[in-house]
Amino acid sequence: MTHPYRLVPITPESHGVDLDIVYATDRNLTGKPIYKAAHCLLLEPAEAALRRAVEIARASGYTLRIFDAYRPPQAQQVLWDFLPDPTYVADVKRGSHHSRGAALDLTLLDAEGNVLEMGTGFDAMTIESEHFHPGLPEHVQRNRLQLIGVMHAAGFTHIKSEWWHYELPGAMALPLIDNEESGPLRLM
């Protein structure tokens, strides 16, 4: 099936974001690289929403740091095999918003380029990673609220379990984008 949208490359130069594509490194929950190269791609509607998020963040003195965006179904399988828990990893049978090019994982940098403290690291698959987990320090709650405010204002929604994950509403209606059709993003 031909996909109705194309994947758009996201770069610091083209989008004013900071990239730290964690799945191209060993700094992810599996402890090993999943992607051969660090590429950041989003489906056209998600890319348009990202541009809005970048402007909203910039107006508040922040920069978005992206950890992951489009994720081939094959990479989703690697994550599911490592942690088959639908609270944190979408079952490959259902498919991920990431594998539809309609989700991204990210955080905020302040004006000096420092990462805002969010209470847990990216990919911390714990209850403390929930957006509104009680008991986190006030400054962490403020930082998470700043991120959710930016992303919601740009048209994204969040999931309860991961403060870093945002997706386009209704994206499950879109088809999965197979790695063979996705261009430069390849698995290890």
TrEMBL record:
Cofactor note (record): Binds 1 zinc ion per subunit.
**Short name of any one Pfam family annotated for the protein:** Peptidase_M15
Q: Which domain of life is it from?
A: Bacteria
Q: Which cofactor does it need?
A: Zn(2+)
**Classification via InterPro entries:** A_A_dipeptidase (IPR000755), Zn_M74/Hedgehog-like (IPR009045)
- GO molecular function (one): D-Ala-D-Ala dipeptidase activity
Task: List site positions: Transition state stabilizer.
Answer: R71
* This enzyme's EC code(s): 3.4.13.22
- Catalysed reaction equations from the record: D-alanyl-D-alanine + H2O = 2 D-alanine
* Keywords assigned: Cell wall biogenesis/degradation, Dipeptidase, Hydrolase, Metal-binding, Metalloprotease, Protease, Zinc
**Positions annotated to bind Zn(2+):** H98, D105, H165
Q: Where is the active site?
A: E162 (proton donor/acceptor)
> Is NADP tagged as a keyword?
no
Functional note: Catalyzes hydrolysis of the D-alanyl-D-alanine dipeptide.
Instruction: Give the matching PANTHER family.
Output: D-ALANYL-D-ALANINE DIPEPTIDASE
Hey, which family's this protein in?
A: Belongs to the peptidase M15D family.
Annotated protein name in UniProt: D-alanyl-D-alanine dipeptidase
Classification from the root reads: Bacteria, Pseudomonadati, Pseudomonadota, Betaproteobacteria, Burkholderiales
